[in-house]
Amino acid sequence: MGRIIIFVFIAFSFAACKGSWDNEDKTAFYDDCIEQANTWAGSADKAKAYCDCVMDKMMKKFPNETDALEHIDSVINDPDIYSCKVDAMKK
User: Fold this and answer.
1) Quick one: which of 9, 51, 77, 86 has the most CB atoms within 10 Å?
2) Could you count the other beta carbons within 10 Å of the beta carbon of residue 50?
């Protein structure tokens, strides 16, 4: 769980001043996610499944990055986000 907290903090730190999720920020978020997930996932397929899930859920819950940053505490503890890891590990 500690790595997830670090990942979420790092992933959102680059977006502090922006509003909506533009392509550059989505790519940066996804690339950071893949890099972190590769340290624990055990395979590229599991890392991809995890990051696809996280990206989808983050964009639905927080249509703009500013909202995501303002609610970082709830993101870290969000069971939907955590379920992405559980689901990815089943694959």
Assistant:
1) 51
2) 24
The encoded tokens of residue 22 equal 């533009």
What letter would DSSP give residue 64?
B
* Token couple for 88: 């990815």
Contact predicate 33/81, CB 8 Å:
no
SS3 assignment for the chain: CHHHHHHHHHHHHCCCCCCECCHHHHHHHHHHHHHHHCCCCCCHHHHHHHHHHHHHHHHHHCCEHHHHHHCHHHHHCCHHHHHHHHHHHHC
Residue 16 pLDDT exceeds 80: no
Amino acid occupying residue 9: F
Which tokens is 86 given?
């559980």
The burial class, CB within 10 Å (0-12 / 13-18 / 19+), for 60 is exposed
Residues 6+ apart with CB under 8 A from 40: 3
